[in-house]
Amino acid sequence: MNAKVWLVGAGPGDPELLTLKAVRALNEADVVLIDDLVNPAVLEHCSEARVITVGKRGGCRSTPQDFIHRLMLRYARQGKCVVRLKGGDPCIFGRGGEEAVRLREHGIEVELVNGITAGLAGATNCAIPLTLRGVSRGVTLVTAHTQDDSRLNWRALAEGGTTLVVYMGVAKLEEIRQQLLEGGMAADMPVAMIENASLPQQRECRSELSRMHEDAQVFALKSPAILVIGNVVGAAQAAWVAAAASA
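Structure tokens predicted for uroporphyrinogen-III C-methyltransferase:
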């Protein structure tokens, strides 16, 4: 399979969450451009691919996006099968959309391969259903980090009534808390802060909106982490308590 780029989601970290399609792409790859947050264990599915690290992580020195674009184009034009391997899902805060557009503008065949996103895997591992009948009819995924430092419409998010999953929010916990409270969200809204989703070192801190910043400091919460904000967090906790009491 020549002159093609696969934009592959490697999932949140647990190598067993890799899809069969992702495994096939890795096996066929001549070149793999791998992000920092990808578990290196997934590279066991490569045959003889050249692996190039193109790290991108918030708050750290990162490989420029234009340079990554040029690398993909260079190897694809050489007739190579290229895999751009990303943590989570390539189209959920993974720049998969813009990379696909750039490649197609230059006549390069592109295939996107979904991966399990950290917001889903982290919540599931903590027994939190992101939607739950009678509690939450939807889920909203947002990032607290934007390229142009623009602000989200936190009031609309507070009033939306869906479970809120926030990526890249550790450095902005106080701002998130303040904006959601000002938007009308209840001070006692349950919050789960989940670090290293799906990995053996995953940690979870349960809190409430009004005190999540303070609790995160005591917990020493670090990136990568996601926030799950909504009544499903409290409902899940209540279900666990009830099950333990009846056991």
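The radius of gyration is 20 Å.
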